[in-house]
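Reviewers asked in the last cycle whether our approach scales beyond single polypeptides. To address this, we selected a multi-component target totalling 739 residues and predicted its structure end to end. The input consisted of the following lines:
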Amino acid sequence: MISLWLPRLPTDRLRRRSRETGEDVNRWPPLVTVAETGGRFLVTALEQEAELAGLTPGMTLADARAVFPTVDVAPTEPAADAALLDRLVAWCGRYTPWAAMEGRDGIFLDVTGCAHLFGGEAALCADLMHRLEGFGFTVRVAMADTPGGAWAVAHFGENGAIVPPGRTRDALLRLPAAALRLDPVTAGGLARVGVRVIGELHNMPRAPLIVRFGGAVGLRLDQAFGVVREPISPQAPVTPFHARLAFAEPIALMADIERGVRYLLDDLCQQLTHAGQGGRQLVLTLYRVDGEVFETRVGAARPARNPDRLARLFDGRLGGFDLGFGVEIMTLAAPVTEPLTPTAMSLSSAMRDLADGDESFRNDGMVPLIDRLGNRLGFDRVVRLAAVESHLPECAVDAVPALAESANFIWSPGTPLPPRPLRLLERPERIEVTVPGTRPVKFRWRRADHGVRFAEGPERISPEWWKRNAETKTRDYWRVEDVAGARFWIYRHGLPQPSHTPEWFLHGLFG
Amino acid sequence: MEVIAELRMRVAAIERDGVESRQPVSLGLAALDAALPEGGLSRGAVHEAMGNAATGFTAMVAGRLEGPVLWCVDATDRAALYGPGLAAFGLHPARVIVVRCQGRTDLLWGMEEGLRTPALAAVIGEPSGAVNLTASRRLQLAAEAGGTLGVVLNVDGAGRFAANALESRWRIEAAASGDVVRPCWQVILERCRGGTRGLSWMVERNEETGDFAVVATPADRPVASAVA
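The resulting structure, written as structure tokens, was:
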């Protein structure tokens, strides 16, 4: 487990920005960022030069100026700092998929099983430090068995230290108690009772500690020593299906990237085949040599593990990326997979219905089309209209994914329904209806009068009273044809009562 | 006359750029098929249908085909397609893939993608407003590439006089019917490449059997009383 600490993240970020905009870096004296708290400006982060002069985070700006009059001041931008840290966590994906943000200025990396890719743990740590320093960050890095141990060494031990397996306890005993990630009140309380280093704390009996400082001290101690496991949740969900390709030299040609994608797909599809799974969603991540991370996601309408087919999903998706000085690492993951059995691969039952003797459909000619449509428009927008058991016309249809396997398309098996309209209004529209007797003779819809030639009905549809929040009014549907021949589906909402006249709505259009 | 007919066929073959002849889609109504130069709606081409009964006509045409149908609609359209209604026109909803596009650009793109897919029997699209010359040309080329039947559906009839490169233009308006189970359409062939224009028929549908028939104008028939 690696703990990465960026103690000067806010000032480093401003320096980087000034470099990018081309401003002269040396013009600035030591930079500090300040935040307003209770009417005073407090220093939140500062550069090394200012720290050597005796400035510390938390002191007021007036005090800081008294010590170092030429200090340059910038406001704190927590959102921008967080966004940068977020991007750095994504960048850390080049080392391990298991990277998580820690606080506002730290990152945990679980590099179990990854270190060999970089020539060992020491080389990995050195590479990490070297690159981040190259980006202009001040970093402190440590590796230990546990997150807590790594954190303690990164913040209070030797920079770049690698605690050998099983030696975390020894490494921590001499570090100050604050290295246990305690809140300032607890840390101050421990200092008051004379506990300076973790070793002293470790030797004390637990019960009085808990009474005095709560459970946090003991928990942090156990976490640091590995007695209690501390789970780290990675920022991006880690998938078991993951392929990675690193280049000795950065590549800047799109054709090479495409070849790389192909190589990754072959690798990933092999993993999927072993697991009997098919990918529904793929994430391709490109790590540019200057630390930019580019991610693109594609979806497949049906689980797939055919490299040719999956490669087509990336057509046109890579064009928008500026390769800059080149890409050094590419990864491909399948975060969403579904079991893919040989039967599902040949043809599902729904597809067989659809195929209807059409030879080209059997060759899965449809699937690439639905992939393309879904990837551009969203898979929830490429649907088929399936039947639902409901008396209410608007509830009787459900949009299901176009290639859904278990969809029912038969309405009211057995008893055929009275005619249904071709189009149903999403929201029935109020109409004014003239009803001299029992049947409508005239109605007004969208400011136009329609004289009724025929009215067929009523078809009574009762509310689904057994459902919660169901509406309670009975609907009487009529199919009417107006003088011009257009046919409409209208209904009376509620039963007629002497006290009030029920409302009428237009619900559908025939023809 | 025979020479001219033969020349026409040859020109048509050249226009189609060597694409092998495809079986036209019969409308199931001899009088209508006879008015079309190929004896039916040509495949590998895009046709236009407008008027308040155009949805039913289009569903009927698609229902006569075999294989899946792509129906591109505008996601903001308040009158959505209704599965049981489609089934009544012989177009089973299981065969219909509805694509809810956001905006005209996506819709025309979706139609083109569909038209290029030979696995589809038909592609139906409801773009808002008129299809201009360029867009219609693109659709037509996509249909030629895929050999699919395309229909640009325009229910409210907006932009009806825009010039375009589509194969034919139909207007289908509901007409007063003689019987409640026999809805009537007036079908007008407004334009047809290489065919006669301005022809008009009365088409009646029998709801009980699902059959269509060309009938005389119903004006001389007695108006049936309302059926309860």
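Residues 36 and 195 of chain B are 6 Å apart (CA to CA). We regard this as preliminary and will revisit it once experimental data from Aim 1 are available.
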